[in-house]
Amino acid sequence: MTKTIRLTMAQALTRFLSRQMTMVDGKKVPVFAGVWAIFGHGNVAGLGEALYHVREELPTYRAHNEQAMAHAAIAFAKASFRQRMMAVTSSVGPGATNMVTAAALAHVNRLPLLLLPGDVFANRVPDPVLQQVESFGDGTVSANDCFRPVSRYFDRITRPEQIIPALARTMAVLTDPAECGPVTLALCQDVQAEAYDYPESFFEERVWTPRRQRPDRDELAAAVAALKSAKKPLVIAGGGVIYSQASNELASFVEAAGIPVCETQGGKSSLPDVHPLNMAAVGVTGTSAANRLAQEADVILAVGTRLQDFTTGSWALFQNAEKTFIGLNVQPFDATKHRALPIVADAREGLEELAAALKDYRAPIDWTGNAKGGKEEWQRAAAKVTGPTNASLPSDAQVIGAVQRAMGAQATVLHAAGGLPGEMHKLWQAGAPGSYHAEYGFSCMGYEIAGGLGAKMAKPNDEVVVMIGDGSYLMLNSEIATSVMLGHKINIVLLDNRGYGCINRLQMGTGGANFNNLLKDTKHEVLPDIDFAAHARSLGAISEKVASIAELESALARAKQNDRTTVVVIDTDPLISTEDGGFWWDVAVPEVSARSQVNDARRNYEAKQKLQRVGD
């Protein structure tokens, strides 16, 4: 006879989560490092009570904003190479919909995130409940249906026993390298409190390890044949190299074959910046060394990348008419993009088998030598723009140089939207795998501070440096207080250019007038003069404002010695960006305008469009 235990649905959920394990560096640890929770009427009585009883094995963390706590969970998973993750719960209504942006972020970036929003009553007796969204034509809809398009798996739990198959599917998605992404289980609030006789076997401990799929022999053979014929081969390293922890295999493969490597935003730090074959960033935010090779390459091995437009220069970068792409990826959707020869496999396994099959192949010496020469040329150009300066308003690049000198290549640096991703991608000199943490798949402003907290929770012994602009800081800064409360110290460098400098430059670049981006160009009665250092202090951080690059480096040296989150503010020039490197990006310019600048930009745009390769 099957042994059972009577629990509420919420109790069964939390007990199950606490029994899921994984192996990290040979040690068995919980898959779920904890649950972020902001309680409301839709989850406090059911799930809140259940979390209380497992608080020792499944810690609950309180935050200040639902989107931010989901960002922290996402950053934790990313910094953990997707081996571990966190769950996030909110009440029904605005608490839930606040997390939709984070769900989209995790979906785009293929990162595991378990979302547990409260939902309406399954029995519908008290309808409409507080915060219920009512559809005039569909009685089954709630606000949580917003999660459907941004979840890898979505389920609404309307009976307590439904949690059994739902959690089985949840774990399969969250731990699958190919399917990985957000899971949303909408928990009807009455069902959270309903009891059921669950089989004890449902709560048995289980150890989950990443699936390492090996290449199909025919796919491998086709890729090997293409590479053996290559005169100008190039590797693009994406985030899949990081998640597979395949940096050593990548290094061995390219060193044996003499193939240069370039890196996406997600793949940066796959190889250390000092590696002679690492040409660093590719694409719109790329280095001259990488982009010059990409334009000429005849065989491009794309490892663990989804080949988004910033990587490919909106598919105008790769200009060799005879080029062949090889897509090494766990997900067939990504492996077959743009008629690529697919190798559907784990990055580490795929690189190992490619290396064995190509042991007698070596790229032409002049191609490899040309690549190394281009890297040296780029390094000289980068040193010029990142060097010390006495300018009253330094550039982002000069701030990056100062942070690099003060914190070193081994620090974990984190950033997201705005102008910083472009400068960081090509200028930051990454050290260890995973030390470069960019959210540039969804380009989500407000990710940075909460993300820095999540990264610090995953890497408590690392110096975590958050680079953020004033616009993004104003969007979402509340988790400074959470970092102080939890004792997780992060270092925040706030670049104040008084508005949205990146988009202002894009506006100007497409012929537009300066309008509604920099604070001085917005409609206002009073031009704000925000004291960011004072604001950060009010949230519990140590903070100071510096007036020069030299002062910034000194402040960061002090920050390393501080015992809690530190914010250093510096004013920067909103109009300066690094001209070296980079490539065109397809941002549509109006065909008709009263502004001559827009018409000029349109003609340039149409000329660049001719470089795009559709379907090849």
From TrEMBL:
Q: Where is the Thiamine pyrophosphate enzyme TPP-binding domain?
A: 418-570
One GO cellular component this record assigns the protein to is: acetolactate synthase complex
Q: Which family does it belong to?
A: Belongs to the TPP enzyme family.
Q: Which Pfam families match?
A: TPP_enzyme_C, TPP_enzyme_M, TPP_enzyme_N
Gene encoding it? Answer: iolD
Statement: the UniProt record of this protein carries the keyword Cell cycle: no
User: Which EC main class describes this enzyme?
Assistant: hydrolase
Protein name (Swiss-Prot/TrEMBL): 3D-(3,5/4)-trihydroxycyclohexane-1,2-dione acylhydrolase (Decyclizing)
Q: Which GO terms describe its molecular function?
A: 3D-(3,5/4)-trihydroxycyclohexane-1,2-dione hydrolase activity; acetolactate synthase activity; flavin adenine dinucleotide binding; magnesium ion binding; thiamine pyrophosphate binding
- Residue ranges annotated for the Thiamine pyrophosphate enzyme N-terminal TPP-binding domain, each copy included: 49-131
Q: Which GO terms describe its biological process?
A: inositol catabolic process; isoleucine biosynthetic process; L-valine biosynthetic process
UniProt EC number: 3.7.1.22
Q: Which domain of life is it from?
A: Bacteria
PROSITE patterns per the UniProt record, alphabetical:
TPP_ENZYMES
**What keyword terms does UniProt attach to this protein?**
Hydrolase, Thiamine pyrophosphate
Residue stretches making up the Thiamine pyrophosphate enzyme central domain: 220-354
